[in-house]
Design brief:
The protein is mainly alpha-helical and 95 residues long. 76% of the residues lie in helices and 11% in strands. It has one domain (25-91). The protein has helices at residues 2-22, 41-91, and strands at residues 26-30, 36-40. A hairpin with a 5-residue loop joins strand 1 and strand 2.
């Protein structure tokens, strides 16, 4: 499987590189109040794709941190129950 991943990565890189080379035309993005931004199409696509990824990660961050806190609390509780069970077993064994 490891030998299959690298050729796929190289192929994906070459496809994206070809896409970037073919889409290097300047594009004008118009904003409100007459503001404009002129850049290459691939640069604009990369900026907006990156912004989408950042927004997606930021929106998932709160729930992921909450789940980690809940998991840590559950693990502490389980560890405490194991300790109590060991103490109970030691106290009830005949000497």
């Amino acid at each position: 499987m490891r030998y299959l991943v690298w050729p796929l990565r190289v192929l994906l890189f070459l496809l994206l590189l070809g896409f970037a080379v073919k889409n290097d035309q300047p594009v004008v993005l118009s904003y409100f109040f007459g503001y404009q931004w002129q850049a290459s199409l691939i640069v604009i696509l990369l900026v907006f794709f990156s912004a989408g990824v950042l927004i997606g990660v930021a929106s998932m961050l709160a729930s992921m941190l909450r789940q980690r806190r809940e998991l840590a609390a559950a693990q502490r509780e389980l560890h405490l129950q194991h300790k109590l069970a060991e103490l109970d077993a030691v106290q009830h064994t005949p000497s």
